[in-house]
Amino acid sequence: MALRESSLQWHLIKGGFFDGLEREFEAFRKLASVRRLKKNAIVFFENDRCDRSFYLDQGSVKIFRVSLHGKEPTFFIRSAGEMFGLAEVVGGERRKCSAQALSDGVLLEIRRDDLLALLLKQPLMARRIIAVLGRRIRYLSEQLENVMTCDVPTRLLKLLLCLSHDEIAQARGGPADVPVRLTQGQIAAMTGSCQQTVSETLAAFEARGLIAVSRQRIRLLDPGAIMDALAGGDMDEGARTSG
């Protein structure tokens, strides 16, 4: 049990941003406006002026950058119940990344001045933002370490566990679905790999009985076995590729 508890680390917990902050959410909703998203719609571009933050009511959004070589490394996937576009708004800087809808969705967006005024009146919400930004810094640090020290199968399993953290907790040892649909190209962008390597690695995991893949949906058949394999370095040799 200690092994598995340590595998699901505190900084991966997503939950809802306003969990336990019902009064603060009501105050937020009164100041926010509703924006409906179509799949692939751009929420904001890198270098845009930061005049709004966003609460994702429905759908999923990827946070990414476009490199000089045209690649699109993806740093985060935001799911329903999460806020994003926070760091630059609080700091008064331009956007460091772009955000794009992975599915149809609904946003609640709040102007920067309204958000800052709300935080002065709602200290619990301000503390929640500090906690969320701290977790995200920890996550990015761990992702950098993974790219430098881990092979592709390890990076891929860690990504699947990260995306499914809350679902694994709710499943209580049973199968858990990755909550967002991702193409192999998107997975490759998030793991610093290539699409062919991701395809081969997923197939090896599926043959081993760790996952099931269907129409961009991934189910973790035995999350505990995945955590044990990661902790013990017991990766399938057939899944080991150079990335």
**Gyration radius, in Å:** 18 Å
Query: Could you say which overall geometry the principal axes of the C-alpha atoms support?
Result: globular
Please indicate the percent range of residues in DSSP E strands (runs of 2 or more): 15-25%
Q: Which residues sit in consecutive blocks of at least 5 with pLDDT less than 50?
A: 1-12
How many DSSP-defined strands? 11
Largest sheet: 4 strands, antiparallel
Strand order of the largest sheet: 1-8-3-6
Helix-strand pattern? HHEEEEEEHEEHHHHEHHEEH
Helix content: 40-55%
Structural class: alpha+beta
Q: Count up the helices.
A: 10
Average of per-residue pLDDT values: 85
For the termini, the CA-CA separation is: 32 Å
Word description of this protein:
Residues 1-12 have low confidence and may be disordered. It is globular and about 55 Å long. The protein has ten helices and eleven strands. Helices cover 44% and strands 20% of the residues. Helix 8 crosses helix 9. The strands form three sheets. A four-stranded antiparallel beta sheet has the order 1-8-3-6. It has a four-stranded antiparallel beta sheet with strand order 2-7-4-5, covered by helices on one side. It has a three-stranded antiparallel beta sheet with strand order 9-11-10.
